């Protein structure tokens, strides 16, 4: 309990924080770390420091109030350009996630079916021995919740040390199609624009996106503009009504995969009406299409005439048939894109990425913007968002994907491998030339008996929960026979659906219990310092990787030595003496994050993703790459890539330059892809569409937010959203528990009719946050051929009253 | 026993929402602060997290309120274990 004096002190701090946001200038530049906290009074042992929020990819900054070694207060960070002091309901509770009563605090080894506490030395030895005995059958699975240094260490350990490319993140499940869309279009990943586009657009088009719930602080930038009297037209293109729809001027309800047809329809009309931006296209774009035989991410060049020919059939009427969106609405969209006097921003996230045509629809939406010239001016941008705090920083930039290397380099390119081996100072040929297994394949191999070709036998999972998030869990994760030789190691902060099947559980430190760096959705790299100790024996994930590597080094694994015979993660003090960072009580003798980051930074210059020195990030609330040193020694970030007015790599006098063009001519690619139907569609047996997703109160699998009482009370259980008429037809009542069945599995859920989200007839929606109701037992593992990202947004199911269900989950 | 500093955003100027502001001010746990444009600062000092959430929901549902954002929160209770 707080005493009255302290309570009054905190109340005055809370009023100061809220009052300053009401009265203050909401457009703040990046400033020094010690500014912006001046109105949050220190006192009574309370101190404040900055950190990015732990949850989504928006990258809001918070001020963390620490007292007596414990986080006691969270404030929005006014000095942060991303959120300008605002926080959403999850950010408000981010401090509480450290203090769930069931934190994992000791390594646990499963012996005879029971979990037994062991010491760290034993745990590290067990892991190292399994890897030493069979390094090629080891896989490392992480996520966009890895900090940048954690991901970089894992990447170097696997690809440089073990010559093993079987490392992949759960970001494969959420934004891999955005990556391939950017690569196919611009030859380089990540959005060209930034959040300023939301402040300056006249029209915001949301493609299967629900930012009101998933990225609420970003969405509030737009709704705030309206409250200030500005006009912003919001167009929501979706398969169900959401809270975002409530704020939209137009709601265009589409059939699953309708987005592909809609984008083709817009481009058809721009061409047909001859009102595309000829000057922009002539100067800055090429046309591209799939190869006839075996389509690749590179495709093949096609002429403008060929593009016109192929797209001619996507008339508004044909698009209406395919998408369900009325032809007049397609014309309305095309007319907006034809208007060069307005600025249009497109936003998307999982709806376009979790899609078996994910790469195609990403490329097509980029193409709509390029063809119409709505690109590169503030407010004119095609922009994808991410769901995890460092999906961009750790996965896309560090390259913790099975085919990638740091800094936009790829395994398949011998020159890239050679550069990477040079930076790491490892022996020539250390990096295996064959890309590793992507997520779905990795888990297929791990959950298949070794004798049947299941050639992954040991897997280390850090900072993610595949036991809940993989599609078709019955095939890819759930307990099976014949896997006795397999060994699952899971590092996490709480017990999860994944730790439930683990052979060895490692207790992890989280968020401000360790140093860290994240990279958010607008290319902003952010840094924070450790502020409190983790509980019990919980330790940093980065330390775990280094400790395993060191044990392998001591066991004589040649890959853990660089060309000079030194440990690949060696850190030396000013006297040239090695600091034993593999011993946890010495890990913070130096800033390991800083050492790893400065090494990683060398890679970032290879593809114009330049990062500043570590200390620059200590001072700032993040900087958007490329960050380039100025003549006066300061470091300048970039808001708008490829645009001559802002991007330092565009030649003086050029309006635009796509300097990583796949056609090597400074041009972006406008793609044509044929519409294809979804991989599974409703039929007589399974007559309804299932779409899965997230809710405002819970972050992804709920392992953190479900431990926060207010959030859990607000949203205590998963449910199935159903249309009233569908419910009536099946004699299903509000709140009744039904069984959702697919060809792959079942899940029992209470029905919510006309609830927060309102699906159309023939569609149901289920959130995936609830580990007691695993909807991924039902979903489909079909994936995009290029990004390998599964489609969680559409498969065929039936809804069965419990009394009539054939199988009970 | 959370204490939170919140920013209430109305769909138009604060002055046009006197009834809603009166209802906020009537909540014993709420202290109303300064306002500007469509935004109003409030502090909520509640006895339990449940009450904090109730107040949050009540304010959010008042006529004219379009957004409720957090500026700061202080807490001294443990999070709960898995529900």
UniProtKB/TrEMBL annotation, chain A:
Binding site for [4Fe-4S] cluster: 53, 56, 60, 88
Binding site for Mo-bis(molybdopterin guanine dinucleotide): 90, 145, 170, 174, 350, 354, 465, 491-492, 514, 541, 692-701, 776, 793
EC number(s) recorded for this UniProt protein: 1.9.6.1
Domain of life: Bacteria
GO molecular function terms listed in the Swiss-Prot or TrEMBL record: 4 iron, 4 sulfur cluster binding; electron transfer activity; iron ion binding; molybdenum ion binding; molybdopterin cofactor binding; nitrate reductase (cytochrome) activity
Keyword Glycosyltransferase in record: no
Reactions that this protein is recorded to catalyse: 2 Fe(II)-[cytochrome] + nitrate + 2 H(+) = 2 Fe(III)-[cytochrome] + nitrite + H2O
Residues annotated as domain 4Fe-4S Mo/W bis-MGD-type: 46-102
Class of this enzyme: oxidoreductase
GO biological process, one term: Mo-molybdopterin cofactor biosynthetic process
Entry binding sites for substrate: 768
Needed co-factor(s): Mo-bis(molybdopterin guanine dinucleotide); [4Fe-4S] cluster
Listed HAMAP family: Nitrate_reduct_NapA
Quaternary structure and partners: Component of the nitrate reductase NapAB complex composed of NapA and NapB.
Similarity section: Belongs to the prokaryotic molybdopterin-containing oxidoreductase family. NasA/NapA/NarB subfamily.
Known function: Catalytic subunit of the nitrate reductase complex NapAB. Receives electrons from NapB and catalyzes the reduction of nitrate to nitrite. Catalytic subunit of the periplasmic nitrate reductase complex NapAB. Receives electrons from NapB and catalyzes the reduction of nitrate to nitrite.
Name of the protein in question: Nitrate reductase
Source organism phylogeny: Bacteria, Pseudomonadati, Planctomycetota, Planctomycetia, Pirellulales
Gene name, Swiss-Prot/TrEMBL: napA
UniProtKB/TrEMBL annotation, chain B:
Domain of life: Bacteria
Name of one Pfam family that matches: NapD
InterPro entries in the cross-refs: Chaperone_NapD_NO3_reduct
Gene3D superfamilies reported in the protein's UniProt record: 3.30.70.920
Protein name: NapA signal peptide-binding chaperone NapD
Species annotation: Allorhodopirellula solitaria
């Amino acid at each position: 309990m707080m005493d009255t004096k302290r309570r009054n002190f905190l109340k005055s701090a809370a009023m100061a924080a809220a009052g300053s946001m009401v009265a203050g200038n909401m457009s703040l530049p990046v400033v020094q770390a010690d500014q912006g906290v001046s109105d949050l009074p220190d006192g009574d042992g309370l101190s404040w420091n900055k950190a990015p929020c732990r949850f989504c990819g928006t990258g809001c900054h918070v001020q963390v109030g620490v007292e007596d070694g414990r986080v006691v207060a969270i404030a929005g960070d006014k000095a942060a350009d991303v959120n300008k002091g605002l926080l959403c309901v999850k950010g408000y509770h981010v401090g509480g996630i450290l203090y769930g009563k069931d934190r994992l605090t000791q390594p646990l080894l499963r012996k005879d079916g029971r979990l037994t506490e062991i010491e760290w030395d034993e745990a590290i030895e067990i892991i190292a021995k399994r890897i030493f005995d069979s390094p090629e059958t080891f896989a490392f699975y992480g996520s966009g919740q890895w900090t940048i240094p954690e991901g970089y260490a894992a990447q170097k350990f696997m690809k440089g040390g073990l010559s093993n490319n079987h490392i992949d993140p759960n970001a494969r499940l959420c934004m891999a199609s955005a990556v391939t869309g950017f690569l196919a279009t611009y030859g380089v990943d990540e959005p060209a624009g930034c959040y300023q586009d939301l402040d300056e657009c006249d029209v915001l088009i949301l493609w299967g996106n629900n930012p009101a719930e998933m990225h609420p602080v970003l969405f509030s930038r737009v709704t705030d503009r309206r409250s200030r009297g500005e006009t912003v037209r919001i167009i929501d293109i979706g398969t169900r009504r959401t809270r975002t729809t409530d704020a939209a001027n137009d709601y265009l309800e589409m059939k699953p995969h309708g987005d592909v047809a809609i984008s083709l329809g817009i481009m058809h009309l721009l061409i047909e009406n001859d009102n595309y931006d000829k000057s922009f296209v002539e100067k800055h774009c090429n046309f591209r299409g799939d190869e006839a035989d075996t389509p690749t991410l590179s495709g093949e060049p096609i002429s403008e005439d060929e593009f016109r020919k192929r797209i001619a059939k996507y008339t508004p009427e044909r698009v209406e048939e395919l998408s369900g969106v009325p032809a007049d609405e397609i014309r309305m969209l095309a007319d907006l894109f034809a208007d060069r006097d307005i600025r249009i921003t497109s936003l998307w996230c999982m709806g376009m990425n979790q899609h078996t045509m994910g790469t195609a629809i990403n490329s097509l939406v980029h193409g709509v913007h390029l063809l119409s010239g709505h690109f590169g001016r503030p407010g004119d941008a095609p922009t994808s968002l991410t769901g995890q705090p460092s999906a961009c920083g750790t996965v896309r930039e560090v390259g913790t994907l099975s085919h990638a290397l740091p800094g936009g380099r790829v395994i398949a390119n011998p020159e890239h491998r050679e550069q990477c081996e040079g930076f790491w100072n490892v022996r020539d040929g250390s990096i295996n030339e064959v890309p590793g297994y992507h997520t779905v394949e990795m888990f297929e191999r791990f959950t298949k008996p070794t004798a049947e070709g299941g050639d992954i036998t040991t897997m280390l999972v850090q900072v993610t929960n595949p036991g809940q998030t993989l599609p078709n869990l019955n095939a890819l994760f759930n307990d099976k026979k014949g896997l006795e030789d397999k060994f699952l190691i899971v590092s996490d902060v709480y017990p999860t659906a994944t730790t439930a099947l683990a052979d060895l559980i490692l207790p992890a430190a989280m968020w401000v219990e360790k140093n860290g760096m994240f990279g958010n959705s607008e290319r902003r790299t952010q840094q924070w310092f450790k502020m409190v100790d983790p509980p019990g024996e919980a330790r940093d994930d980065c330390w775990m990787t280094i400790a395993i590597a060191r044990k392998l080094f001591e066991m004589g694994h040649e890959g853990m030595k660089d060309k000079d015979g030194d440990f690949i993660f060696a850190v030396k003090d000013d006297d040239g003496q090695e600091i034993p960072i593999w011993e946890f009580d010495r890990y913070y003798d130096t800033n390991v994050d800083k050492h790893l980051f400065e090494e990683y930074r060398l890679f970032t210059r290879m593809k114009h993703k330049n990062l500043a020195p570590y200390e620059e990030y200590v001072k700032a609330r993040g900087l958007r790459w490329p960050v380039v040193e100025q003549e006066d020694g300061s470091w300048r970030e970039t808001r708008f890539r490829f645009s001559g007015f802002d991007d330092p790599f565009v030649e003086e006098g050029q309006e635009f330059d796509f300097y990583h063009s796949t056609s090597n001519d400074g041009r972006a690619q406008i793609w044509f892809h044929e519409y294809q139907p979804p991989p599974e569609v409703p039929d007589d047996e399974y007559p309804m569409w299932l779409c899965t997703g997230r809710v405002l109160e819970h972050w992804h699998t709920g392992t953190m937010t479900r431990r926060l009482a207010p959030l859990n009370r607000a949203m205590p259980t998963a449910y199935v959203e159903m249309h009233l008429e569908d419910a009536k037809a099946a004699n299903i009542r509000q709140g009744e528990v039904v069984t959702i069945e697919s060809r792959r599995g079942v899940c029992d859920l209470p029905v919510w009719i006309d609830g927060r989200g309102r699906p159309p007839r023939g569609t149901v929606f289920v959130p995936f946050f609830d580990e007691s109701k695993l909807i991924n037992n039902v979903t489909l593992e079909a994936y995009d051929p290029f990004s390998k990202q599964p489609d969680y947004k559409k498969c065929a199911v039936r809804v069965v009253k419990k009394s009539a269900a054939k199988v009970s989950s | 026993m959370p204490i939170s500093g919140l920013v209430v955003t109305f769909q138009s100027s604060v002055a046009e929402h006197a009834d809603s502001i009166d209802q906020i001010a009537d909540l014993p746990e709420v202290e109303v602060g300064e306002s500007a444009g469509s935004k109003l600062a409030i502090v909520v000092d509640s006895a339990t997290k449940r009450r904090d959430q109730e107040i949050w929901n009540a304010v959010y549902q008042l006529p004219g309120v379009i957004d409720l954002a957090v500026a700061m929160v202080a807490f001294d209770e443990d999070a709960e274990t898995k529900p």
